[in-house]
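User: I'll paste a sequence; please echo it back and then give the predicted structure.

Assistant: Echoing your sequence first, then the prediction.
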Amino acid sequence: MLPTFDENGLLPPGIHVADTWQEFASRFGQTSHRQSLLLGMKSALGVLRQARCQMVYVDGSFVTSREHPDDFDVCWDTTGVDGDQLKQLAPLLLKVDKGGWDAQKLKYRGKFFPTQVIEGGSGKVFLEFFQIDKTTGNHKGIVALKLREIWS
């Protein structure tokens, strides 16, 4: 079960696993706007799953108490991913620059980052970068989805 938000509307520090898509969608899809974001996310996650991605991590205002998040941020684990298949199915998910992220946001309503790529400003890999509150510098929580399990 996913933990409750802290006094700042964030998840407590750590990686919190949603056992099913239903659990995740129920927790973070409370408004029609959030449900629209979930549709885009689910579309891209289906493609990542086809390319053998096993784990993604969801961050950004989407996994906070914010009522109207602009988008979502997903960090996907590259371990075991068939890059050739992903390039065929959704080459946009391999774009790791501002132009690529802007295009991802248009198509999927959110942005996708490989876990092992370094975030330029911090020098941390995206998986670590996602767990730092950009406002305070404090640690915060993110949500993990095991793609092989959430839809089985």
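Helices lie at 21-28, 32-50, 83-89, 98-108, 126-129, 147-150. The chain has six helices and five strands.
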